[in-house]
UniProtKB/TrEMBL annotation:
Top-level enzyme category: transferase
Reactions listed under catalytic activity: ATP + protein L-histidine = ADP + protein N-phospho-L-histidine
Lineage, broadest ranks: Bacteria, Bacillati, Actinomycetota, Actinomycetes, Streptosporangiales
Species in which this protein is naturally found: Sphaerisporangium corydalis
Signal peptide (from-to): none
Enzyme Commission code: 2.7.13.3
PANTHER family: NITRATE/NITRITE SENSOR PROTEIN NARX-RELATED, NITRATE_NITRITE SENSOR PROTEIN NARQ
Domain of life: Bacteria
Short name of one Pfam family: HisKA_3
MF annotations from Gene Ontology: kinase activity
Transmembrane segments: 30-47, 54-76, 88-108, 120-141
Protein name stated in the entry: histidine kinase
């Protein structure tokens, strides 16, 4: 659109000049002047492809009719385009030649034309206003653009470097955490597995052998999960097994039953597949709740309820009161805090409280 406006403006001003209102009046008929001005406007419109066409039209128009608008626009675009000093010097030399030719034509025609183009002061002023200053303006605009582009590239490069440094720091921190987990947690779990295996071999009664085998199996599974986590920490692109979902819930309940807890599962509503993040969060809620039952209530009856609502999924784990007083669950550690963060990240709510009969309740509602 701006190029159309540029062409129309050059046409209008050129016609205004050659008719004598802002230049030397021409003796050519009006249709010829309109045609010449239209050619100048077309050349100005085509400057988006190449400015030399406009420069050629401007040179011819200035020598023939003292028509300066095309040459003014061409000089500006020459400043935007020419990058080498030799090119700029060549363009200025061409402008000087055009001024000399226009002065010669002015001397030949005489009168107002001679005064406008052949007088040294007027010719110098015209050349300065229509050729030199627009060229200098174009050079300044181009230099400013280059400075802004260089500043933008530098800012982008600094931002990229900052991201790379942050990623490097995260990688180093992941590696440190992985080392700590390997040296401390994995080592302790490995000892548990080894002692469970030794107990399984040396135990005399069948119940102890089964309990030791279950502890060893759970420990080996925990070691496998730890290795996957350590692999992710060391290399984020490493492929790991799919995270647990509701389909793995029965296996988790069977492990608790094998340890002596009477776990009962109740499903309410129409079961349906849900987003992986929702199912994984429900699995972790049940897992943490059963872990707390093991630690703080012992072998007591526990109910696990999964309710499929129209817009949410509710999971509830409630256990009976322990037979003997145990540690309060509220001081158990960071397990419930982590669960609350998991649930709230999905827009849900987590409620935990001691029941009137001494048992404990964990209830989570998650949008589904």
């Amino acid at each position: 659109m701006r190029f159309v406006l540029l062409g129309g403006g050059v046409f209008a001003v050129s016609l205004f000049v050659v008719q004598g209102q802002a230049g030397v009046p021409s003796s050519l008929p009006l249709p010829v002047l309109i045609t010449v001005a239209a050619v100048a406007g077309l050349a100005a419109w085509r400057v988006r492809w190449s400015w030399w066409e406009l420069a050629a039209v401007g040179a011819i128009g200035y020598v023939w009719l003292a028509m300066w608008p095309p040459l003014l626009v061409a000089s500006y675009h020459a400043g935007l385009t020419l990058s080498r000093r030799s090119g700029i010097a060549a363009y200025l030399g061409g402008c000087l030649g055009v001024c000399g030719a226009a002065a010669a034509v002015g001397v030949y025609e005489g009168g107002l034309r001679e005064m406008m183009t052949a007088t040294l002061s007027n010719a110098a002023l015209t050349a300065l206003a229509t050729m030199v200053l627009p060229l200098a303006l174009g050079l300044w605009v181009r230099a400013r653009r280059e400075v802004l582009e260089a500043a933008g590239e530098r800012a982008e490069r600094l931002e990229h470097e900052q991201v790379m440094r942050a990623e490097q720091a995260r990688g180093q921190e992941r590696a440190r955490i992985a080392r700590e987990m390997h040296d401390v947690v994995a080592h302790r779990v490995s000892l548990i597995v080894l002692h469970a295996g030794a107990l399984e071999v040396r135990a005399a009664d069948e119940e102890t052998v089964q309990a030791a085998a279950l502890i060893g199996g759970i420990g080996r599974e925990a070691l496998g999960n730890l290795r996957e986590i350590l692999g992710v920490l060391r290399s984020p692109v490493r492929e790991v097994r799919p995270p647990p979902t509701l389909g793995d819930l029965d296996r988790l309940l069977d492990q608790s039953r094998a340890l002596g807890i009477a776990v009962t599962r109740h499903d309410e509503g129409e079961a349906r597949s849900l987003e992986a993040t929702v199912e994984r969060t429900v699995y972790r809620v049940v897992q943490e709740a059963l872990t707390n039952v093991h630690k703080h209530a012992g072998n007591v009856g526990t109910d696990v309820r999964i309710r499929y609502g129209p817009g949410e999924l509710e999971v509830e784990v409630r256990n009976d009161a322990p037979e003997a007083p145990r540690d309060e669950l509220t001081g158990a550690g960071w397990g419930l805090v982590g669960l609350r963060e998991r649930v709230e990240l999905l827009g849900g709510t987590l409620r935990t409280n001691v029941r009137d009969d001494g048992g404990f309740l964990v209830n989570a509602r998650i949008p589904a």
